[in-house]
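Reference record
================
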Amino acid sequence: MKPAAQRILVVEDDANIALGLREVLCGEGFEVLPCARGDLAVDLCTRHNPDLVLLDVMLPGLSGYDVCRQLRGRGCHTPILMLTAKGQELDKVVGLQIGADDYVTKPFGVRELVARIQALLRRARPQSAATATVTSTDARFEIAGATINPRTFELSRDGTTCELTARELQLLQLFHARAGEVLSRDLLLNEVWGHGYYGTTRTLDQVIVQLRRKLGDTAAPHRILLTVHGVGYRLSKGHRSP
């Protein structure tokens, strides 16, 4: 029996771009679920459970940022690939901080777009690679006075609680398990984003910045997540709790 086509929710309000995306993705064997409004995207994702969400930033009804926040807030770990404006670095940073898995800058090449989609889907079989690894070890642990709960994807510190993305949680688990070791950028990308990741280390660096904020990481000499220039990062041994 032929396996069912993987379904992609395309949230794009520009009719010409949406049509082009549909033709390209259908030509690659995907099933496309179109959506032209942000305020309809969350419900469509919940009802149809797509394999991936291709999400524009600028949308009527609800921005792509808000759609991403709501999906992650509901515990949805479906891969999200955001479409950002050319040259808008802030769009990319914000998208990654709120839980997007990757981004493509408009105007984008068809081959790059398809390659990024396929890379995300490879890591999502049978579920998000990050989620699969995260859920395999669900015991709470502490870093620098912060308690991390893998079951709820939450970090609690100084009486406040914030949500973690699947990638943030898996990074924290890696740092905790290998405290004091220097973990290269390549190793972190392979372990968390997968060996098929199609992108740059800048994505990792931006997630580290967000993790530092959530941990209340201060400047040197009391840094929690240390940068090892030209190599990667390490968790200071003194900040790991068993």
